[in-house]
Amino acid sequence: MDTLNIKNFNIEHIAMSGQCFRWNKIAENTYSVIAFNEYCEISVDKNGILSLPNPSLIDVLDKDYFDLSTDYSLIKAKADIEDTYLQDAIRQFGDIVILRQDLWETIISFIISQRKSIPAIKTCIENLCQKFGDEISLGDKTVYGFPSPMKIKIATHEELKACGVGYRDKYIKAAAEWFINTPESEINLQSIRSIFGIGEKVQNCIGLFGLHDLSCCPIDVWMQRIIDERYGGIKPKWMESEYAGVYQQYVFMYERSLYRTGGKKWK
DNA sequence: TGCCAGGCTTCAC
DNA sequence: GTGAAGCATGGC
């Protein structure tokens, strides 16, 4: 078993943060995670010790999936001290990291995310993985990795729709064609926007979660409401900062928590 | 049952 | 360039 002493890592908040869709709670403070065709069960104890019980997480650790190399204390320290709303969000949800996820998986996941709730996105992605992903045998059970671009390329529109992607089937197919035919050196934040079905919001999600460009700040319905209702219709400074995407995660979770608890409903 | 979801493309104007 | 309509389906 590998253990790591970490800070700024609230496993529950990360799992709920809408950046990853293949984390599932299996016990208190314990989640199953499937990433890079690897399965692991992670847990964090009271002292902030992250346990990785599966020792064969070659890609997950090599690619710094949990982003343990980024200094989040520094990022939080740089947040505008005068911005009380942002500071409140940091106090409550400041232990969320931006995972370094697989780019291809991120592209497809956030194409699917448009006009879907987070639980519906998870169901849809799970369906795709079960139908088109590689088997990961765990002895007593089998789980599935994320489908390769080629598997999606050769899938029919009907097969994709059967997974619950709805009208996004053509977007997903276009993304597979694009990903297979585009040289790696030409894949970047700008070129991703040229994929049929990817607009500004999804582009920024892919930039933040797939390319780990922390300045990307996806403006979804929640961010737009926050601009309108919390900042009087004027974009706050942090949305233009080099860590806009990180602050956006804290605020996204914070505002949703206020909404859920019914403390401050939208008009 | 009806509403809404981490939006995008298309088409008027 | 801007604004409105239409879009598939699941979860609450």
Radius of gyration: 19 Å
> How confident overall, as mean pLDDT?
93
**How many β-strand runs?**
7
Strand content: 5-15%
Q: Could you state the order of secondary-structure elements as H and E? A: EHEEEEHHHHHEEHHHHHHH
Helicity range: 40-55%
Unreliable stretches covering 5 or more consecutive residues = none
Largest sheet: 5 strands, antiparallel
The strand line-up of the biggest sheet is 1-5-4-3-2
Discrete helix count = 13
SS content category: alpha+beta
Overall 3D shape: globular
How far the N terminus sits from the C terminus, by CA atoms, comes to 50 Å
Output the keywords.
DNA-binding; two-stranded antiparallel ribbon; 44% helix; alpha+beta; 13 helices
What does this structure look like?
By secondary structure, this protein is α+β, with helices and mostly antiparallel strands. 44% of the residues lie in helices and 12% in strands. It has 13 helices and 7 strands. The protein has helices at residues 11-16, 58-62, 72-77, 84-93, 103-112, 118-132, 149-154, 157-161, 169-181, 189-192, 200-209, 221-230, 244-261, and strands spanning 2-5, 23-27, 30-35, 38-44, 49-52, 135-137, 142-144. It has a 5-stranded antiparallel beta sheet. A two-stranded antiparallel ribbon has the order 6-7. Strand 2 (23-27) and strand 3 form a beta hairpin. The mean pLDDT is 93. It binds a DNA duplex (13 and 12 nucleotides) through residues 18-19, 110, 113-121, 123-124, 161, 164-169, 171, 196-202, 205, 218-223, 252.
